[in-house]
Structure formats: structure tokens, C-alpha cells
DNA sequence: AAGCTCATCAACCGCACATCG
DNA sequence: ACGATGTGCGGTTGATGAGCT
């Protein structure tokens, strides 16, 4: 037997809210608050609505200072950066955008931003496939001075119109006149500490959002890392003890950096001789392997399935990172290489699998 | 003008977690 | 410790309107 329903479905109104219902709910909450019990609230005010429905209506529509539509480019960037970093945690993303609701952001992402990032699928397939056939095996995108603004942006793997040209995203650091909760790495640390879940260290295992993989040893006191411990990030996601990119950055700079993660259809990012390479492999998930100080640091990437989906794979190349002008590229880089020593990821190279 | 397709977004659903007795 | 219940969240649905043929 399942759990009892939260309300009497037969006597509960569904569908769009009328102005009268809105007014009732709004005036009651403004005068008395929610009373800490959404389930009981509709009965108190004579609304034939489910308590959950009242809560949703209040949070997403009636609550003061709600903004609808008209997302700014800056908001786009924040959403993209956070999505790349933490995935579809809309409530967390919404918390960084005052006046925005998780539902709004979710809808905006699904209907507009996703398409803006990924472009027209049909045109993309056509263009990239035909183009990539003509390309040689190697393609190097060099950025000797900056991770965020690759110097050579003249890649011809994908035509420019393919990915929208966006202004450079200045990582996750925002100016002081913006939301103070999100304007420095300390704040990002706090944000990350709030996240739990994907970044949690439950049972010393790597916690993946879909539970698709659970690797890591049991009690691993030898690998105790105070910085990572404070961040609640698993310092050793790999069974063999290979340090993660996150660990690397914390060690190298005592700085905050975190990497998103991604299990993608048969695609893997590997590193080779001072380059980060993106290689499609027959098995495994998406991995990021960073070279720094002559050491390689593989790292699993979860949460970018959408961005690196199967249709992004063209002749064994993963498309989105190919164009350094693309929003997704910049979001990815700004999120993943925050605080990383520059020499660690100064180049991207695309190679074909032998 | 009618019919169809597609985009948008409010609202619903079900699950997981938190809290309480 | 455990079950019942409330809350929060993310995924999904469906009504509606705009645009196209």
C-alpha cells in the first residue's frame, strides 16, 4: 500500500488559478503567513485546492518581487555557468538569481537557453558532419595566456554561425555591485558547501546524480584533505587513488575550484602531452584529464549529458568544446578551471581515435 | 479562414528528504 | 528506531497562443 494522498483529489480543483483564488491566497498569506502548514492552508481560507498547489502558486507567482521573463544576458551566463557546474539543480540556480523561481529558470532553460546553446540540430548535423569529414585528425586550439579567452579562435571544425557568439564569461566572479552572495570564490565555496548531493562525500564514495557509478574506497583516512573535506568534495573519486582535478587545484593554489561532471555516451576526454584532448572511445563515460606539472589528473564529469549528448559526437570529436567562442565552451572553462594554474589547461586538441 | 505545428509556461506528479510524535 | 506526515524539488504534462501552410 502506498502513501496516503496529501489531499482529497476528488474535491480539489485543478488547472489554472482564477484571480479570485489568487487574491484569497495572497491576502491570507500576507496577513497570517503560511502558518507552517501548506496542507491545512487551503481549508482555512476556503480554497478547493491542494496545499502543494497553493504553495507552488505562492512561490512561483504571488510572492512579492517575482520577475517573469526578460532574462538578461548576464542571467543567461549565470544560469549556463551553474548548469555546467551543478546540473539541473534549479533551486540552487534560482537562489543566485533574485526574483527568479526555479520553475521559471527550468522553463527558460528547456525552451530557450538550451536551444541557444545547442543551436539548430538539423543545421548542426548537416554542417558539422560534412565539415568534419574534411578535417584532418588533429585540431589544436591554443590559449597560451588565458584559459578563458583562447587566443586562436579560428577553428574551422564548425562554422561560426553554428554556435552563438557570446561575450566572454568572466568565470563565476561578479562585480561587487551585484548579488553579494555570489561575487567571490568564498561565496562560491559557500554555495558549494550548501549543495551536498553531487559533491557530497557520502560513505567516502563518489556520489553521482543518477547513481550511475559509485567508486572510491571505504574509510580512506590517508587521503584526508582538509580543504576538500570542508568543501564536502570527495578528494579521491578514483579507485586507484588518482587525485582529482579539484584536489589538484586546491593543492596547487589553495584556491577554490570545482569541476562538473559528466557521463556521456561513449565519449572520453583524455590528456596527452600538455594538451587536453577530447577523444571518443568505445566504452566509458566522459572524463576530463588535466595535465599539470607533468602529472595527469583524470576526472569524471557528470551532468553535461545534454551538452555533450550523442548528437554532439561527430566523427569521434565532441563538438561543443571545439569553438572557443561558444557559450558552452566558455561556461565550461570558467566553471571547471576556476583558480587553476594556467599552465594546466592551456590547450585543447581534438584527435581521432586510432 | 481553417487546420496544423510548434513554443511557451503554469501547473501537476511523484519521489526523496526532513521533521515530528 | 520507526512510521506518518509535511515540504521541496525536478521532471513532465497539457492548455494556450503564435506562426505557418
From TrEMBL:
- Region annotation Disordered: where it falls in the sequence: 119-143, 201-222
Q: Which residues form the Myb-like domain?
A: 9-62, 63-113
Q: Which GO terms describe its cellular component?
A: nucleus
Keywords, in A-Z order: DNA-binding, Nucleus, Repeat, Transcription, Transcription regulation
Q: Which PROSITE patterns does the UniProt entry name for this protein? A: HTH_MYB, MYB_LIKE
* Bias-annotated ranges (Polar residues): 205-215
Question: What's one Pfam family the UniProt record gives for this protein?
Answer: Myb_DNA-binding
The HTH myb-type domain extends over 9-66, 67-117
Output this protein's name: Uncharacterized protein
Principal subcellular localisation of the protein = nucleus
Ranges of compositional bias, category Basic and acidic residues: 125-136
Q: Which GO terms describe its molecular function?
A: DNA binding
Q: In terms of domain of life, where is this protein from?
A: Eukaryota
* Upper classification of the organism: Eukaryota, Viridiplantae, Streptophyta, Embryophyta, Tracheophyta
